[in-house]
Structures are given as C-alpha cells and as structure tokens.
Specification:
This protein has one domain (21-133, 187-319): Vaccinia Virus protein VP39 (Rossmann fold, 3-Layer(aba) Sandwich), CATH 3.40.50.150. It has helices at residues 4-18, 28-31, 33-49, 67-79, 81-86, 96-105, 166-171, 186-202, 248-257, 268-275, 277-285, 290-304, 306-310, and strands at residues 2-3, 56-61, 87-92, 110-112, 123-128, 137-142, 145-152, 155-160, 181-184, 204-211, 223-226, 229-231, 241-243, 261-267, 313-319. By secondary structure, the chain is an alpha/beta fold. The protein contains 13 helices and 15 strands.
Length: 331
C-alpha cells in the first residue's frame, strides 16, 4: 500500500520512460505553431523588461517533443536576434526517450533532471502542462476529521490523518461535506517555491500554463489518459498518463511568499488573444490552401474558446521583484 502521491510519482516516471505520451494526448504546441511562437516572443519581451541580461538561460520544463521550444526559437530569431544571441537553451527532462526526440529539433540544448540542476544566472523559464503531472495527495473528510488516500492494488484505501497539511486546513471550506475530497499538490508547491526563490536571487521570469481552477475547492481531479481516452487511474500503473488539476492561487501565494512578483492567473484564452493569437493565425492561414487554413483557425479557436481550452487553462507569470507587468498580463 502506497500513499497516492508516491504511487503517482512512480507510475508517471515509468510512463514517461517507457511510452510515447503523444500517442495518448495532444498539447497546445502540437495543435498550432502559433502557440510556441507567441510564448517565444513573450520570453523575448520578458528579457527586455529584465534589462536584457547577456547571457541568459532560456529553459523549458517538460519540453515534450521539443515542438514548443522549436517554434519559440524560430520566432525569437526572426524578431529579436539580440535575445537569440544572448540565450543559452536548457531543458528539464527526465525521460531518455523524450530527450532523444527533443535533440532532433533542438540541437545544442543542455538537459537537466531537475530545476536545481540549472546553472546559476538570470533565467527565463516556460512550463506548459508540466505541473499537472506532478504528484498530488488526496484527503477525505470523515466525521469532522481527515483521512488520507492510499493505493492498495487498483483501489483506494483510507488511513486516518490526525495531522493534516497546513494547506489543507487553510483551503478546505468550513462546510466541507461528509465524504468530500480535497487535493493538495505539495510537489507543485515545492517546485514553484524553488523557482520563485531562484528568480528572486538571480533575476528572471517564468510563465506557467496549465489547466485547473483559480482556487482549491472540494473535488477529485485525478485522471488517466490512454490512447486519447479516459482510463482508470489506478489500473496498470505506468501505462497511462496520470494528471490532476492545478489550483493556481496556492502557487501564486507560494511564489509571493518567496519574494517574487506574481501576475495572474489569467484565462489562457484571454492571455493568448492579448499576445496576438488570432492575428498571427489569420496571417498564416492566408498563405495556406483552404483545408490547412481552416485547421489553423480552428486550432486558435480551440486554444482560446471558453468552452474548449480557453477558460479551464490558465497562465501565471512569476517575475523578479519590481519587474513591470509582462506581456498579456497588463491591467
């Protein structure tokens, strides 16, 4: 029997080592090149706002196939050659299989197992759908107290938790229903705390995009995808991608507590529209035959429409203290 976060960490480590995740799900960079281009230009403007440090680390956490960063670099080289000359590309990736795929698109990159492995210096980091794969804990409200979920075989077991995490106590509503579930993402909080501390100490900026609510609320969000269809999350560990919704307010509070400036969370649709999603997609579509042009516009709508990815997905920016609002987050 294992605590849920331990089970999830082990299962996802096996999954990303042994399987091609893109057979099971598709992410925004794979939908349209415009997504990566916009994030690349966001990074370039953040670099300018930070005083144009040279050299500067441009890093991505969980780079997938390398598509996002390849599109970002193409836009950076075309629009901001000074930033292209100053940046040093670093990727945070544990999977040897995915590193090999990334190397095909991103020659010259340097890989790291963890955030702590990045060399010192000013940092601009992008993380798209990275935090949702970090392990979570689940707690069940029983008779005015808390039990924690463990995994026994392919089922949950509950063990009394007389000393629940402080964040659970802070975020659970006073009228928590009997049998209600709260999720705590300690791994994500620790990662964001380390990132914010690094940005405060060395300078930099980070853009985190993921799916989930602004505030933590009762409910279960653990899910598994296999062959692009939902699968039972506790069955056949390592054979499906396990993710959970990201609650953004605790992450923002965590970054502020480390002294960083925080902007957002902002709905992805609003954020991308402000960066020029529809203008760039329309520009590209005009040079394409009718079918790919329609696909280009449809991809933009999928990213931004509130009923698709535009509302569920959020963007959060973490900046060096005193930095002005980064692109897309202007009030």
């Amino acid at each position: 029997m294992r605590r849920l976060d331990h089970f999830m960490a082990t299962a996802n480590a096996q999954y990303y080592t042994e399987r091609d995740p893109f057979a099971d799900f598709i992410t925004a960079p794979e939908l349209t090149q415009v997504f990566g281009e916009l994030l690349g230009l966001w990074a370039a403007e953040a670099w300018r706002l930070l005083g144009r440090p040279d050299p500067v680390l441009l890093a991505e956490a969980g780079p997938g196939r390398g598509t996002l960063m390849a599109d970002a670099l193409r836009a950076i080289r075309a629009v901001t050659p000074d930033f292209a000359g100053a940046l040093r590309l670093h990727l945070i990736e544990t999977s040897p299989r995915l590193r090999a795929r990334q190397a095909e698109k991103l020659p010259g990159a340097t890989w790291h197992e963890t955030l702590a492995g990045l060399p010192p210096g000013p940092l601009i980091l992008i993380a798209n759908e990275f935090l949702d794969a970090l392990p979570i804990r689940q707690f069940v409200h029983r008779c005015g107290a808390w039990s924690e979920r463990y995994v026994a075989g392919a089922a949950f077991a509950e063990i009394a938790c007389p000393d629940p995490p402080a964040l659970l106590v802070e975020t659970a509503p006073p009228d928590m229903p009997e049998g209600g579930v709260m999720e705590v993402a300690e791994a994500a909080l620790d990662w964001v705390a380390a990132l914010a501390g690094r940005i405060v100490a060395d300078g930099g900026a980070a853009l985190l995009i993921d799916y989930g609510p602004v505030r933590a609320a009762p409910g279960e969000s653990l899910q598994a995808l296999r062959d692009r269809r939902p699968a039972p999350p506790l069955e056949n560990p390592g054979c499906a991608d396990l993710t959970a919704h990201v609650a953004f307010s605790p992450l923002a509070a965590c970054a502020r507590a480390r002294g960083a400036a925080v902007f957002g969370p902002l709905a992805q649709g609003v954020f991308l529209a402000r960066l020029g999603l529809f203008q760039r997609s329309g520009q590209l579509a005009r040079g394409l035959p009718p079918r790919p042009a329609a696909a280009m516009i449809a991809a933009a709508q999928r990213l931004a429409a509130p009923e698709r990815m535009g509302k569920l997905f959020k963007a959060l920016a973490i900046m060096h203290p005193g930095a002005p609002s980064p692109p897309g987050f202007e009030m």
